[in-house]
């Protein structure tokens, strides 16, 4: 269970992480606009979203969510591949969902820009 100070620090971390992600997302979107294909632009943005926004629940504290890239990297460095597999599973699920969203966006783009 988290005390009040820990909950506040947890909330501040996720708020700072979200703000930093939004700034990075818009910077990368401006950079990816240089690419000629809409599908490639949105694919790269989708990969960015999956890599940075996929969470995994901490095995130590219930209700404590960690960015999966951070958790998986830390556990792989420590050599605990079974714990890292949880994060990699979350990446797989998030990637499949994002692939579906990406395909639907390409269909929308094709229908609108005929």
UniProtKB/TrEMBL annotation:
Entry's transmembrane regions: 7-28, 34-54, 83-104
Keywords associated with the record: Membrane, Transmembrane, Transmembrane helix
Key word Transmembrane present: yes
Protein name (Swiss-Prot/TrEMBL): Uncharacterized protein
